[in-house]
């Protein structure tokens, strides 16, 4: 596995985690608004 593939994989993982985190924060905010 070369360095470019590793860097690309890490970038994809960070993107996925960021998307999930953003979705979770938005979901929590919506739950707070409904109360």
Uncertain segments: none
**Backbone structural class:** mainly alpha
Helix content: over 70%
Oligomer classification? single chain
Keywords: Membrane, Transmembrane, Transmembrane helix
Transmembrane segments: 6-30
3D structure, described in words:
With 35 residues, the protein is an all-alpha fold. The chain is 91% helix and 0% strand. The longest helix has 32 residues, at 3-34. The N and C termini lie far apart (50 Å). The chain crosses the membrane at residues 6-30. Keywords: Membrane, Transmembrane, Transmembrane helix.
Quickly describe the structure.
By secondary structure, the chain is mostly helical. It has 1 helix and no strands.
Question: Helix and strand layout, with pairings?
Answer:
Elements: H1 3-34
Keywords: Membrane, Transmembrane, Transmembrane helix
Transmembrane segments: 6-30
Describe this protein with a few key phrases.
91% helix, 1 helix, mainly alpha, 35 residues, membrane
């Amino acid at each position: 596995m070369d360095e470019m593939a590793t860097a690309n994989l890490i970038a994809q993982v960070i993107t996925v985690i960021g998307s999930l985190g953003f979705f979770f924060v938005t979901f929590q905010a919506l739950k707070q608004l409904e109360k």
